[in-house]
Amino acid sequence: MLKRVIFLAVSFLFVINMSFAGDLLSLTPDDAAFVVNVNLEKMLSSEVIKKQIDDNMAKQTPEQKKSFDEFVAKTGIDPFKHIKGLLIFIGNKVDEKTQKPNAAVLIDGTFDSEKIIKAIKEDPKASEDAVIEKFEGLDCIKGKKNADGVGVFLDPNSAVIGNPDSIKTVIGVKKGTGKNIKTNANLDALLKKADTSAAIWGAGLLPAQLKEQAKNNPQMQPLAAINALFFAFNYDKDLNFDFTGELDKKESLEGVMTSLNGFLAMIKMMAGQSPEAAQILNLIKVEGADTTAKITLKVPQATLDELKKKIEEKIKVNAPAPTPAPTPAPAPEGDKK
Known about the structure:
Layout: H1 2-10, H2 18-25, E1 32-39, H3 40-45, H4 47-58, H5 62-75, H6 79-82, E2 83-94, E3 101-109, H7 113-122, H8 124-129, E4 130-135, E5 138-143, E6 150-155, E7 158-162, H9 164-175, H10 185-191, E8 200-205, H11 208-215, E9 226-235, E10 239-247, H12 253-270, H13 275-281, E11 284-289, E12 292-299, H14 301-318
Antiparallel strand pairs: 1-2, 1-8, 2-3, 3-7, 4-5, 5-6, 6-7, 8-9, 9-10, 10-12, 11-12
């Protein structure tokens, strides 16, 4: 049950409005170096995505539907109604023991922590994997096998999943003893350039360690000039993706553009055997000006419908033929009448 509660929320990353984005950003610690926000309310309000979900739900077997309904009844969480959005942040500090950066997922939704905890305690399998305890005075679900697997309910409308150190910083922000991301002048300035009204958006400052690794790789070396980036993704009827990289100086633009175009050409070559993928890749534009490099992808609804039809036709053609029923063995002579 613990895994279903946690991973069901996290899995919606690849599937909010301005006020929601501000709410979760206000809980994000000031040492965050990178943030990605998923506005599930906006995603699920899209007619295209809503139809896809409805179609998939309609294909559920009776057993799957029963399992989903039981999950909702026991935990009080319907992911399509009660999970409004996610914000992932990665800190610029690295744990000395694990060498992993502080990171966590903030969740905006509706949580009945007592009901969820009761469901976990009453589920034998969930009880084997999780322990219920207090963390900094708040209700906490902790994985027995993974010390970094900690989920804490901050209040009835927000929760956080991550490693203990990152959660402590979030709780500090929540209690007012720590500073939030808005006090980080460099990142706050970058956030103001990002389209925080998008269904999915992200922004971040590239850490020095990553830039050094790029410098030591001949193919990646020019990309070490990128100091910061932000992107936005929207999918209603048309699909739109915009990525912007901010460079250290104007003189770095030519090298960055060469690298980006080179990577795009390589991807196109790898996708050459798939006309559908090539059709999408040909719509990507790489542009540069002054100290910014931009990648944009705009796919009209008509093109998406055309590609969908082609893929469905391919699936039908390549689907294995149904296995014929075995021919009944002839009855023994003595049994014939």
